[in-house]
Design goal:
With about 325 residues, the chain is α/β, with parallel strands linked by helices. Helix content is about 45%, strand content about 15%. It folds into three domains: about 1-50, 434 Repressor (Amino-terminal Domain), CATH 1.10.260; about 60-155 and about 290-315, Rossmann fold (3-Layer(aba) Sandwich), CATH 3.40.50; about 155-285, Response regulator (Rossmann fold), CATH 3.40.50. Strands 2-1-3-4-5-11 form a six-stranded parallel β-sheet, sandwiched between helices. Strands 7-6-8-9-10-12 form a six-stranded mixed β-sheet, sandwiched between helices. α1 packs across α3. It is elongated, with a radius of gyration of 23 Å.
Length: about 325
């Protein structure tokens, strides 16, 4: 308790009053004390007992790859939403490693966060999710939507990709190469389904050689595009399944000296800061990143207040931004 008082800059008696509820404490001071408790590396039994019946005004955020612009923007949106709600955010990057993910979730639990927002990794055993459920920790999943009892926030992946591919078909393309993300990723699977549906709806036969797996990363996508270009009847258009693969695709097309859209048209999922500055500017689908982050926080707050509320799965619409890489003037 002395350590908490020192970190919070208050007296030991004030810490005691916050823990035991024996006297009214100024709300701002109380929040400072609770944050000091939550940030402790360990929690003495007396504090653990108190926290079992109170809150810390802190949530944990576990993201699979912070280096990905998509996730970094969502984290920024989450942080903004937390500030408006009077919450503190603890952040950790799981690096898409299931073992690290479990360690992060356990560490958040030890620090007595009130809830956790998480973009799950590829863990077939679902250890982190089982840990959350077993310990009754309020949680919301972001982006990678799974058949679990947790609240989830994502976008209309299938419909959005179907519309993007249909736009290229409208330009007369029937041999459309597709850069798919990691095969374990539910988001990648939904977008691949959208690609297939667009071709089927237009009566275009699906050539599986045109589906390349870029593993949701830059270098695998670069190599995948080179493989598509090496086909005897290469595609006349390419669609990328996420922002990192778009970077890899742009590198490959530049290395091969391919003119966009003159030789190969291009469209991608996810907008990028430089997409409208690229020559030619890139046609993309833009996800509402700020809204995703805000909605995730909103759902988590509801779950923390109403543990027995019905499960909510939110699918947000995306916006197609038509530029020049697809062949539009």
């Amino acid at each position: 308790m002395n350590d908490v008082a020192r970190v919070a800059g208050v007296s030991v008696s004030t810490v005691s009053h916050v823990i035991n509820g024996t006297r009214r404490v100024d709300p701002e001071t109380e929040q400072v004390v609770r944050l000091a408790i939550a940030s402790a590396g360990y929690i003495p039994n007396s504090l653990a007992r108190s926290l079992a019946r109170s809150t810390t005004s802190t949530i944990g955020v576990a993201i699979s790859t912070f280096a990905n612009h998509y996730f970094s923007e969502i984290v920024r949106a989450i942080d903004t939403a937390c500030g408006k709600a009077g919450l503190m955010m603890l952040f950790a990057d799981t690096h898409d490693d299931p073992e690290q993910e479990l360690r992060v979730v356990q560490a958040f639990h030890q620090r007595r966060v009130d809830g956790i927002l998480m973009a799950p990794t590829n863990d077939g055993a679902l250890r982190s999710l089982k840990y959350l459920e077993a310990n009754q920790i309020p949680a919301v999943l972001v982006d990678h939507l799974l058949p679990t009892p947790f609240d989830q926030v994502g976008v209309e992946n299938t419909e959005a990709m179907q519309a993007l591919v249909a736009h290229l078909i409208g330009h007369g393309h029937t041999r459309i190469g597709y850069l798919s993300g990691a095969q374990w990723n539910s988001t990648s699977g939904e977008r691949l389904t959208g690609y297939r549906r667009a071709l089927a709806a237009a009566g275009v036969a699906i050539d599986e050689r045109l589906v390349a797996y870029g593993e949701s990363s830059i270098e695998p996508a670069r190599l995948a595009v080179h493989a598509l270009l090496a086909l005897p009847d290469r595609p006349s258009a390419i669609v990328s399944g996420n922002n990192l693969m778009t970077l890899g695709a742009m590198r490959a097309l530049k290395e091969a000296g391919v003119a966009i859209p003159g030789e190969i048209a291009f469209a991608g999922f996810d907008d990028l800061d430089w997409a409208d500055l690229h020559s030619p500017s890139l046609t993309v689908t833009a996800q509402p990143l700020e809204d995703i982050g805000a909605r995730a926080v909103s759902l988590l707050i509801r779950r923390m207040r109403e543990p027995d509320a019905a499960r909510s799965v939110v699918r947000m619409p995306v916006t197609m931004r038509i530029r020049r890489s697809c062949g539009c003037p």
